[in-house]
Amino acid sequence: MLFQFGFYSSLLLITFSQGIIYTVLLFIKGLKTENKSNYWLSFFIFLCSLFIAPWMLGFAGWYDNQPYRDILFYTPFQHLLFIGPVIFCYTQSLLNPGFKFNKKQFLHFLPGIIYLIYSISMWVYDKFIFGDYYFYKDGMDKDFDFWYQKLGLISMLIYFVLSLRYYNIYKKIIVQVVSYADSILFKWIKTYLIAFLIMLLLPIIFDCISYLYPKLNSYTGSWWFFLFFSFIMYYIAITGYSNPINSSIPFKFSKSNTNKVLLLSENNNFTEEDSIIDIEYETFTENSSTEIDLWKNKIETLIQEESLFNNPELTLSDLAKKLNTNVSIISKTINQGFQMNFNDFINNYRIEEVKKAFDKGEHKKTTLLGIAFDCGFNSKATFNRAFKKNTGFSPKEYLEKA
User: How far is CA 242 from the centre of its chain?
Assistant: First the structure.
């Protein structure tokens, strides 16, 4: 097989090869962990690897030699209309165990499938009907048509916004249903969304720079764009492969009203209405202060008597089961009655327990982190943030002030 090794082709070959390797590694990880998000990230890295392939193979001599030239012409390497939907599906599968690929999700991939059919049709017409170049008589690869490149960029920007919106909804949900929200707020999500945004901004940045340095519009100049693109792809592949966190709270929400969230559970015996919470703070019907006070007393008594806050993985569902009621009622009571979300509500109990330990002088016998863990916190960062939010001081400042 023809491959002319040189500075330009060899560097892209390295990043292309690493992309294919991580595509396989992520797919294997998906098989082992049965985590769907690894499949989607594997697909994304594969698409990114294909994206840089024409430039790599072009510098390796494929556009100048047959039959390699026709392979590049008629093989759609740049699936720009697939990349956005794949990123969106990856975001959903990473944050929501209840995510399923269904007919509605399939519709997102329809534009990409249409372009794929369009590419195959050009090959069939040129090779079997016209018998010569018709679509490719100008000698230009259709993957680089202006309309397709810009349409692909717009598509990816739209799905970036949808992914960011989904993540923001997730953040609102998670503080309402678990007491360990900080540990699953997914710094990785922020990291890869920023990396993906930089990837999207690259063509815009290069277009702007090319006005000052016209050489960037040349074939060799455009190589720098693909090199930077491949570096970002490689970074996403490495950090995505090492991401250990997966959400365990399945949910569903309506596109028309994202404030109403349905919590999904295999062992849920309640009606759908009883499993809906409002992530913008629930409210009871008017004149229900008595009902609120009743549930407030039940919740406070249970948490204090059984020290439920010591459980670092306590969830809203756990509390509802203990009180033989549904998550909707508990969520409404905490939001309206205590004017805070579930995560902050439980963390306040933990902080009060830490203060009691300080008063007893426990910090002189053990570490601050040890006390935090004993009181239900699961990380130093979460403990420090919650303590500062509750008292206005860091743990060390609080002890110095006492």
Answer: 14
Q: Quickly state the pLDDT bin for 274 (edges 50, 70, 90).
A: low
Q: Is the peptide bond before 67 cis (omega within 30 degrees of 0)?
A: yes
Mean pLDDT over each residue of the chain, to the nearest integer: 90
* DSSP secondary structure of 337-377: ISSS-HHHHHHHHHHHHHHHHHHTTGGGTS-HHHHHHHTT-
Cβ contacts of 142 within 8 Å, gap of 6 or more: 73, 119, 122, 135, 136, 148
Residues 6+ apart with CB under 8 A from 215: 221
Rg of the Cα trace of the chain? Answer: 27
Contact 253, 99 (CB under 8 A): no
Backbone φ, ψ for residue 131 (5° rounding): 75, 10
- Report helix, strand or coil for 4: coil
Q: In what order do the strands lie in the sheet with 276-278?
A: 251-253, 260-263, 276-278
**What's the whole-number mean pLDDT along residues 217-238?**
92
Residue 51 tokens read as 């994206």
Mind spelling out the 3-state secondary structure of 283-295? CCCCCCHHHHHHH
**pLDDT tens for each residue of 348-376:** 999 999 999 999 999 888 999 999 999 99
pTM for this entry: 0.89
Hey, CA dihedral for 353, 359, 360, 365, is it positive or negative? positive
Residue 62: which residues within 8 A CB-CB, separation 6 or more? 2, 68, 69, 71, 72
